[in-house]
Each structure stands twice: as C-alpha cells, then as structure tokens.
C-alpha cells in the first residue's frame, strides 16, 4: 500500500510513507502480519465488517490521492470514463462542490492498490480463522473490481434504502473515511406495517439492522447481503445513534468498489 498512499511527486510525504505491513505492525513476513479484525453481522448472511482496515495515516493518504485524482481528472472526466456530479447532478468543475466521482474500467493505481488490500484482508482472515468471507469465484476473479464510486456526504446527507443495481456482479466493498455513520439494512421482503409482518418476524426478516461504520472500516456484501437486503444511510438529525448516543456528524467520504457484469 506504500504507493497507494505515498505522494507520487516524491516530496516529504514520501518520507512519511509507510507500508501497509508496517501500519499493521507487521515485519514484512506475510505470515507474521496482523490479521485485520473482521466481524460477521449475524442477522445478514454475506455481510462482513472489518473495523481496522485502514490506519489513520492510510486513510489520509487515500483521501489525498482521491482528491488529487478527482480534481486533476475532472476536466477530462467524461472522456476518461470519470463522472463528476454536484448536488444538482450537473458536471462540476470546482472541486469543493464535488459530491460524487465514478470511474469504470481501468482504475487509477491507488484504487488498484486498494482492491489488492481488500483481497489481502480477506485472505489473511480466511487463512487465520478458516472462515469464508467471500465465495472463491468472487475472491479470485480478475479484476476483483472494475468500477469505483466515491461519495462525499455533508452532515445530514446520506443515501436512500436501495439494493445496488443488477448491472453489477455479486461482491461489493465499501470503504468509509472521515465521519463515522450507521448504515441500516432492511430485508427486501419485509415492509413495515404490512399485514403479514408478524410472519416476517418469525422468519427473522425483522426491522432494520444497524451497522456502525467507523472511518477506515471496510464492509463486504455478497449473496443475501447484496441481493436480499437494502442498505441506507439516514444522516438527518435524530437517525444516527450508536450505543445510545447520537453521532457527531462531519463530512463523510465513502469509496464503493464493484465489478460490472459482462455485456452479452
Ligand atoms: O456511502 C456509502 O457508504 C454507501 C454507498 C452506496 O451504497 C452506493 O454507492 O451504492
Ligand atoms: Fe449501495
């Protein structure tokens, strides 16, 4: 991950650059690397959370790579496959207004490094715990992801409940940066207030499942989590509670990594 978060201009940031291995307290020997902390969300099959995916230093390097990349590429966004959007969905030329940037196809080098780190974090956990976080056909597909979307949310802004579009394959990763938030999952078959809502309760399709996403965390969705549960982030006042306390809202950036389905 050194290159991913180092400064390509080779300035002082380069000196600060540390390898992913060092950031995790490792010694260069893969077998001795610290295994990231993964949690299964028990109510939802296929939903895994890695709370310590990126160190604070890695997070700030990723943010600057993202900002530098989107800013520099904006004027040639559409030609290059990037899409920049402001709050009114108009193309944006001022980086302070940038809310969303998307890229298809060849990802920038830092995003490729990020994808490799996702795979590494999964492999390390699978080797250490014998758990299966992703089906092998997803984990070992090439490339793991070929589409990236970066979302920047101001306090109060979030994303409505949705299942990601079917044009994307199974196996989606979301990296959280800056402000923490609570993402809620709701079963697609369960609608609150429906007549047979009680039956849903018996089948475990109850209400919303909250998942706390701290900065630097990684969420993986596959199978049920990807197709049978909607996810949403409601950051309006009164909706972001964790352990009884309302979260302090700041700007939040997320990076979603997905793979497009092949076109027939
Ligand atoms: O911002 C997030 O954490 C989620 C983004 C998301 O769900 C999406 O882009 O489909
Ligand atoms: Fe989504």
Word description of this protein:
The protein is α+β, with helices and mostly antiparallel strands and 264 residues long. 27% of the residues lie in helices and 25% in strands. The model is unreliable at 1-28 and 71-97 (pLDDT under 50). It has one domain: Alpha-ketoglutarate-dependent dioxygenase AlkB-like (Jelly Rolls), CATH 2.60.120. The strands form 3 sheets. It has an 8-stranded antiparallel beta sheet with strand order 1-2-10-7-14-5-4-3. The structure holds 2-oxoglutaric acid and fe (ii) ion. Residues 162, 164, 231 line the site of fe (ii) ion. Pfam families: 2OG-FeII_Oxy_2. Belongs to the alkB family. Residues 144-261 form the Fe2OG dioxygenase domain.
Report Rg: 19 Å
Low-confidence stretches: 1-28, 71-97
Strand content bin: 25-35%
* CATH architecture descriptor text: Sandwich
Instruction: Give a quick account of the main beta sheet: strands, pairing sense, barrel closure.
Output: 8 strands, antiparallel
Q: Specify the helix fraction band.
A: 25-40%
Question: H/E series, N to C?
Answer: HHHEEHHEEHHEEEEHEEHEEEE
Shape: globular
Name of the CATH class:
Mainly Beta
Total domain units: 1
Query: Mean of the pLDDT scores?
Result: 77
- What is the count of β-strands? 14
CATH topology-level fold name: Jelly Rolls
Number of helices: 9
Bound molecules: 2-oxoglutaric acid, fe (ii) ion
Distance between the termini: 35 Å
Largest beta sheet: strand ordering = 1-2-10-7-14-5-4-3
The chain-level structural class is alpha+beta
CATH superfamily: Alpha-ketoglutarate-dependent dioxygenase AlkB-like
């Amino acid at each position: 991950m050194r290159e991913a978060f180092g400064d390509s201009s080779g300035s002082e940031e380069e000196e600060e650059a540390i390898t992913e291995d060092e950031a995790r307290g490792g010694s260069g020997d893969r077998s001795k690397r610290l295994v990231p902390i993964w949690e299964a969300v028990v109510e939802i099959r296929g939903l895994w959370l890695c709370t310590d995916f990126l160190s604070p230093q890695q997070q700030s390097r990723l943010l600057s790579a993202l900002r530098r990349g989107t800013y520099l590429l904006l004027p040639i966004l559409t030609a290059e496959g990037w899409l920049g959007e402001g709050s009114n969905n108009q193309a944006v030329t001022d980086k302070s207004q940038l809310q969303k940037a998307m890229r298809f196809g060849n990802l920038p080098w830092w995003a490729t490094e990020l994808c490799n780190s996702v795979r590494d974090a999964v492999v390390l956990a699978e080797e250490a715990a014998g758990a299966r976080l992703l089906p092998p056909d997803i984990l070992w597909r090439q490339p793991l992801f070929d589409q990236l979307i970066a979302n920047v949310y101001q306090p109060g802004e979030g994303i409505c409940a949705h299942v990601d579009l079917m044009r994307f394959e199974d196996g989606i990763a979301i990296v959280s940066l800056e402000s923490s938030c609570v993402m809620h999952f709701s079963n697609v078959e369960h609608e609150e207030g429906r007549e047979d809502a009680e039956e849903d309760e018996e089948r475990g399709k109850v209400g919303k499942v909250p998942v706390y996403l701290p900065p630097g965390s990684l969420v993986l969705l596959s199978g049920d989590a990807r197709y049978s549960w909607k996810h949403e982030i409601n950051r309006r006042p009164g909706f972001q509670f964790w352990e009884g306390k309302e979260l302090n809202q700041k700007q939040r950036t997320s990076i979603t990594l997905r793979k497009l389905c092949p076109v027939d």
